[in-house]
Structures are given as structure tokens and as C-alpha cells.
Write a structure and sequence with these properties.
This protein is of the alpha+beta class. Helices cover 47% and strands 18% of the residues. A 5-stranded antiparallel beta sheet has the order 4-5-6-7-8, with helices on one face. Strands 3-2-9 form a 3-stranded antiparallel beta sheet.
Length: 415
């Protein structure tokens, strides 16, 4: 197969998969299939309670509400400072957006590049606008990024090659070539083992059933389909019926009678069906219903025990994106090497702190009891309000040094 034929095959694969990923995107933003199907009547109201986005956002917030911290296994403070310095211009929610993309599609791409100011950057892409061709070890051998330009109806795409070449196409015609300074294809492929692990795949049918029942009941109440007007001893034509509907007034002869016949639908049955479907979605995704009434024991340990299954799923999802973060750091160090600054990515440990209630008093007590059995850096990494243990240690050293320079005798003398 020639290079051109391989590129055409990859693009064809992208086009074939795109409709499925578009459905996944629609469900995340609340544009569900139910909106495109007519219910009982053409003007039925449709109610959407979006559990897909709820569960995805919960997992992202659970993992990344607290900042990621980096620890050097060898105590290399310069390396931690370099990471903080050269990524300072990134958006604070960069990792959250990456994980949201990953959770929504089961796959995401992180493309490294150097911007016009010479800074190391990363573009977050999804299967909606990119595709990677990987070898048997899942190492990218080719990457294609599709995009459009404002006020331009043409379709553009860039093809990245392992030798550093970038080909730029416009409507399938090559218009330019560039190069990148990274080793191999500068993209991380963050992908679940199976698409069935996605929230979308786990609850799509349950989500549709839940919203259909909910919408049916809203439509019944909204358009009074649960009641019929029975009139006896009087005749009524279409014009009078329309006047009754619009004005709400009814004049009956002396022996005329009007009353409502109500549809008797057991509310408990409907509530139970919605509850069953709701519980099934929470169970399928290992989430818990935060609206449930808590037991008397509301300690951080008790709350964490309720979150154990969510923690297990979130940890598995976080492990996936951790690989992408290590790839990011590896390319950052390639970028720094161009500036004659060398670090080893294997010296980095990435820590994340779940966003759950933490008993700080217990944590501090454990650190105190361990004493000199652990390093100060490791001890500080256990505290979720500290973003960078090494930078925190530097601040402590500086404060102590400033205090030592204060002449207490002069202060006392002035007093």
C-alpha cells in the first residue's frame, strides 16, 4: 500500500466512525434521540434529564477538582519548577477538558505543538476532528487533524508523520508542508480498552426509556390528555368546542350537565418505574445518588465508603489519562532539550487527590506519627490543598530565611 493509499484508508475510516461519535456528542450536550421521535401527539412536550453528562461531569470533578501535583522521585526541584514554568500559560481546566473528551467518546487525542510565541502547547482533539493510525504497540505512526476556518467552507486537514513532516491539505489537495521538532508523531492517544466502558454505552437505552416515561407524563399533564369533558343533555358543534377551549366558558340548558372523566394512572407505578430506571443507571456506572438521605454517620470515612465503587471507576479512568500526561511531559522535556535543559520523565510521579471530604486532622496526625520515616515532599503531597509539594517547600525555606534575617534586638530597641 502506498502512502497516498494509506492516507485515503485512514480518512475513510474516520468518515465511517464519525456518525457514531456525533451521537455520543449529542447525548452529552442533551440532544437525545427522543427529541427526534414523535410521542403521542405532534406537539407533545419532551423532558430530558441528562444522566450521561451528569455522570461524566461527576467523574471529571471527582478526579480533577483538586489540582494534579508532580513529585520528583530523586528530589529534583529544578524539574518540578520547569514543569510549572513552561506550562503556566495553559488554561487551568486543560486537564478537565481532556478527561471530559475522553469520558464522552472513550478516546481523545492530545497534539503537542509550539505556538507563534515559541511556547510549548497542547491542542485537545477528539474523534470528531481527528484520527490516529497506530502500530501493534499503540504507538502513533500517522495522525490526521481535520478542521475548518472561519468564513471558509473548505475542509482542511493536517497529516503528521514520524519523521517530523506535516502535510497540509485543502479539499484533498496538498497546499503546504511544515516540520515539527518532536520525536515521532507528536500526539498522545488516550483510549479505553473497549467502547463499552463509556457512560454513553452503559446507560443509553436506560436513559432513553427514563426520558420517554418522563416525557409521556409531562405531555399528559401539559395538554390535559388525562381528562375528557363529558356533556349530557346538550349538543355541541366544533365552533362551540373551540370557543370553550379558548375562553373556558360553558353555557348549558336547564337539564344539561358537564363533568370530567379522568384517566386513572397509578402515580406510584410511574414513580416506581422511573426509580427502577434511575437506580439501574446509577448501578451501571458505579455512581451514587447524592440526593439520597444520608444515614446518621456523615463522617468523611463513612462518605468515602459510599464512594468506593465510584472511586474504583474514576481511578481506572484516571489511569488512562495519566499515560497521556506522561506522554505530555516527555514531549515537554524534548522541547526543553532544545533549550539545553535535560530531565528524565521516569523521575516524575503524578499524584491526584479525589474531590471527597478528607479528615485533615487524621491525615496531619498520621504525618506527625510517621515523623522522619517519610520525606517532607511526600508528606506535603498527602494534603489536597497543596498544588506542588516542592514549590511549597521552597516557599517555606524562603520564609524561614527571611525570618532569620530580621534583627530582633533592633525590633525590641524600637519598641
Amino acid at each position: 500500500m502506498t502512502e497516498s493509499e494509506l492516507n485515503k484508508s485512514i480518512i475513510a475510516d474516520y468518515n465511517a466512525q464519525l456518525p457514531y461519535y456525533e451521537v455520543m456528542q449529542r447525548y452529552y450536550i442533551g440532544d437525545h434521540d427522543l427529541l427526534y421521535f414523535q410521542l403521542t401527539q405532534p406537539k407533545d412536550q419532551i423532558a430530558i434529564e441528562n444522566f450521561v453528562s451528569k455522570f461524566i461531569d461527576e467523574e471529571v470533578n471527582y478526579c480533577l477538582n483538586n489540582p494534579i501535583s508532580y513529585v520528583s522521585k530523586s528530589g529534583n526541584t529544578d524539574m518540578i519548577k520547569a514543569i510549572d514554568t513552561y506550562l503556566y500559560h495553559w488554561k487551568t481546566n486543560h486537564n478537565a477538558i481532556m478527561m471530559q473528551n475522553f469520558e464522552t467518546f472513550g478516546k481523545c487525542y492530545n497534539l503537542s505543538y509550539i505556538d507563534a510565541k515559541g511556547r510549548f502547547c497542547e491542542r485537545l482533539l477528539t474523534p470528531l476532528n481527528a484520527i490516529a493510525y497506530c502500530d501493534s504497540d499503540n504507538v502513533p505512526q500517522r495522525f490526521i487533524h481535520f478542521y475548518t476556518k472561519k468564513y471558509d467552507n473548505d475542509r482542511y486537514y493536517d497529516i503528521y508523520y514520524p519523521d517530523g513532516c506535516i502535510e497540509i491539505y485543502r479539499n484533498d489537495g496538498l497546499i503546504d508542508t511544515k516540520t515539527h521538532p518532536f520525536k515521532g508523531v507528536p500526539v498522545s492517544v488516550c483510549e479505553m480498552n473497549n467502547v463499552s466502558e463509556t457512560i454513553f454505552s452503559k446507560i443509553r437505552t436506560l436513559q432513553d426509556a427514563y426520558n420517554r416515561i418522563l416525557s409521556d407524563q409531562v405531555a399528559i399533564i401539559d395538554s390535559y390528555k388525562n381528562a375528557y369533558l363529558i356533556m349530557t343533555g346538550v349538543s355541541i358543534d366544533d365552533a362551540t368546542a373551540e370557543m370553550l377551549r379558548s375562553k373556558g366558558l360553558l353555557a348549558l340548558p336547564e337539564k344539561g350537565e358537564a363533568k370530567w372523566l379522568m384517566k386513572d394512572m397509578n402515580a406510584t407505578y410511574i414513580e416506581n418505574m422511573l426509580s427502577i430506571l434511575r437506580n439501574a443507571m446509577f448501578s451501571a456506572t458505579n455512581h451514587i445518588d447524592g440526593n439520597e438521605k444520608l444515614q446518621s454517620n456523615t463522617s468523611s470515612l463513612a462518605i468515602r465508603s459510599r464512594l468506593i465503587f465510584l472511586e474504583q471507576r474514576s481511578k481506572a479512568m484516571y489511569d488512562y489519562i495519566s499515560d497521556a500526561i506522561y506522554d505530555r511531559l516527555e514531549r515537554l522535556f524534548e522541547y526543553l532539550k532544545l533549550k539545553n535543559i535535560e530531565f528524565d520523565v521516569s523521575d516524575i510521579k503524578i499524584n491526584f487527590t479525589p474531590s471527597i471530604p478528607v479528615d485533615l486532622a487524621t491525615t496531619v496526625n498520621v504525618i506527625s506519627q510517621l515523623g522522619d520515616k517519610i520525606s517532607n515532599e511526600t508528606a506535603l503531597s498527602l494534603l489536597n490543598f497543596i498544588e506542588s509539594p516542592i514549590l511549597e517547600m521552597e516557599k517555606i525555606k524562603k520564609e524561614r530565611a527571611d525570618l532569620e534575617q530580621i534583627d530582633l534586638d533592633k525590633i525590641n530597641g524600637n519598641a
